[in-house]
Prior knowledge:
The protein has 1 helix and 8 strands; from the N terminus they run ββαββββββ. By secondary structure, the protein is mainly beta.
Amino acid sequence: MECFSKTVATDTNILVDFSPEVNQIIKNGGKIISAIPGTTTNSNNALVYGKVATQASSNWSEVYVRCNSNYYSGLGGTTTLTLLVVYE
Length: 88
């Protein structure tokens, strides 16, 4: 297992590319079993309420974490998204 995180500007809809990290696991001989998106948090000490999902191609060459944050007006700051990758 490995956990990756990326921090981006907070927006209503966020799409973060984790393909390079996942592809490195595959290049090192790992077989991807699952990829689980983590909780999103905001730099202004607030939870970002909304749906978080993993979006991936069938061969795992493209892997994204999508967040429809539905953040309240004025939240601003940055949002951190995480991806837990399970492989063997």
